[in-house]
Amino acid sequence: MSAGPDNAPAAREATRLLNSDLAANVEFLAARARAMGSAKANAALAEFGLRVRTYSVLSLACQGLEPTQRELADFLSLDPSQIVPLIDELENQKLVRRRPDPRDRRLKVLVATAKGEKLNAAAASAVASATAEALDSLTAEESETLRSLLWKVAFTKEERDSARQILEAVS
Amino acid sequence: MSAGPDNAPAAREATRLLNSDLAANVEFLAARARAMGSAKANAALAEFGLRVRTYSVLSLACQGLEPTQRELADFLSLDPSQIVPLIDELENQKLVRRRPDPRDRRLKVLVATAKGEKLNAAAASAVASATAEALDSLTAEESETLRSLLWKVAFTKEERDSARQILEAVS
DNA sequence: TATTGTTATACTCTATAACTATA
DNA sequence: TATAGTTATAGAGTATAACAATA
Questions:
Q1: Are A90 and A60 in contact (CB under 8 A)?
Q2: Entry pTM
């Protein structure tokens, strides 16, 4: 508690707050890391007229999986009502198309147009660069460790098992 | 591509989207992990009348560091104008107090009240439980690894070095 | 002239409820 | 009756610009 009067200039060096309980909090660190990362990603996507949200939807539309809007909502942890304007935006730009499912006329599956596929490829490359930049404090091995740990946190065991089974069934 | 018509029931198992490029994206995983974590944290904080944002400010006020509003903004990656209503909210509940700095009358440092200290201790415990729950797919060692990797990503090398120097100067 | 805290404003994100059309 | 997509709405988060007081 010997915080002498001398070390309190105008800015006071906000970094001294790094020595706080909060700075040791995993959730705080994750929030801050994500804020930095998504700012970089959004900046990289701006030149393509995309944001993280719309890019995520476009990317999923470009996998040949033909997801329904409900699936997109579940997977992106969004409410179904939030998906609607995101798809509207992409559809207005002719990047994706809602295709009614004749077997269940309630369903609309999302498919990418050729234009959408092309833009997605370019955007994916820009996102990869932005991610690499955001992780430049980490070695390649550390980045991979981070990815696998986040994978475990982001999905329940049931979800991970289910995804693995689906993958095995396809191959 | 042998996605037979049989495996497409109503819900279509959104987990099949886990086999997508997006699901391998670190930023997407971080966003999803954080969404799950902050939902849990906000739920845990609700009984104390706090949210992640206000808890973060209260927590920093309870460290005896007497941060200025500008420091809080820098550290929490918020605009100074966003800090104002957060402190207003805490001050209205008598949890913190803005104290003018007589040496520079532009500055207002944030100090916690006794009531604030007490609430913070209880809230910190609830947040720790919520975090443990969010990370329950990880071993203790993995959690610690995740924390140290996020630490490196969340702060620049300069910030980490600066914080270390300040810590050493105090001891 | 620069900085701190503040007000104002707008846009995005998040969450909820209710409606429609299909099943 | 249950589900998919949609509309509407409100609150929280994010970002910017401009202002008064002070340095």
A1: no
A2: 0.89
| Separation in Å, CA of B116 to nearest CA in chain A | 15
Give the amino acid at A76: L
pLDDT in tens, B17-48: 999 999 999 989 988 888 888 888 999 999 99
- Write out the two tokens for A58: 């476009």
Q: Nearest CA of chain A to the CA of B54: how many Å?
A: 12
Q: Is the pLDDT of residue A77 over 70?
A: yes
Query: How far from chain centre, in Å, is Cα A131?
Result: 11
Closest residue in A to B130 (Cα–Cα): A27
Q: What angle do CA A117, A118, A124 make, to 5 degrees?
A: 85
B104-112 and A96-100 strand pairing: unpaired
In 3D space, the residue among A137, A35, A12, A7 whose CA is nearest the CA of residue B158 turns out to be A137
User: Counting every residue, how long is chain A?
Assistant: 171
Least confident of B2-6, B23-27, B56-60, B64-68: B2-6
- In angstroms, the CA A158 to CA A167 distance is 14
Of B13, B29, B146, the CB nearest to A166: B13
Query: For A130-153, how does the pLDDT look when each residue is reduced to its tens digit (9 = 90+)?
Result: 999 999 999 999 999 999 999 999
Of A10, A19, A65, the CB nearest to B17: A65
Kindly determine whether residue B2 and residue A70, on different chains, have CB atoms separated by under 8 Å: no
> In angstroms, rounded to a whole number, what is the distance separating the alpha carbons of residues B90 and B97?
8
